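Backbone shape codes:
===
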Amino acid sequence: MSSRVAVVTDSTASLPSRLADRFDIITVPMQLKIGSELIDEAYVPTDRLLRAMEAQIPITTQPPAPDAFFWAYQDAWAKGAETIVSVHVTPKLSPATDAAKQAAAKSRVPVFIVDSHSSGMTLGFAALAAARIVQGGGNVQNARSVAEQRGRDASVLIYVDTLHYLRQAGRVSAAAKLFGDALSVKPLLTVVNGQVEPFDKVVGRDRALAKLVDKAVALAYGRNVDLAVEHFAAEKEGHELLQMLQKRIPHARDVVLTQVSAAIGANVGPGALAVTVSPF
């Protein structure tokens, strides 16, 4: 690590490894409890998670293992970091930030915790923005400020085949719980103040995705943005969605296609797609 400022995040950021490696971002894995077994999500292949979901084995997500953040901070210090910006999933979706704060209190170097106000690539782009500042020679205050701003300004639009998994995980608002389960009616969701909220419902998958694209285009209009399409066990559909978006948002700077972390996948279910528009 050449910089004196390290950037740490958690695996709900869903950052492709090529980007995390390129920008020296340290990623601490969340945990999944599958049945009675507690595992770092980095060791949960997608096919195993899908089999467990199909078999209706209870799956819950948990913050990183005790001291996982502490050892990440120690590792950064050992490599020369004098300060750390630690950017995380909103506390409204996970207690991971509490674990990071506890580790920060024991860290050898100052740690500045940033709430991304969401998860997925909203968090991913916030961490990337901090890392860009660091690699450009910026200080910890600049990196922290930029990460906070990117988290606040980003928008995520989510398509799920069914609300079953989000309801089961307790991740949807009271309003979203009222959405019906008719197979033809597809809910479109967003994250507002850390809470998964509905913004529309559309008959048919194709119409729902077209609506998602229209909304993303409106959000990106006239702005400098980074763009991500996230999916869970739906890479082909994610690629098609990304192509649709790139035709209509040709000015996007970073364009990312990524599978969400297993912790998010367990909450949204197979076939889920999301679009993150992150102004800079």
The mean pLDDT is 93.
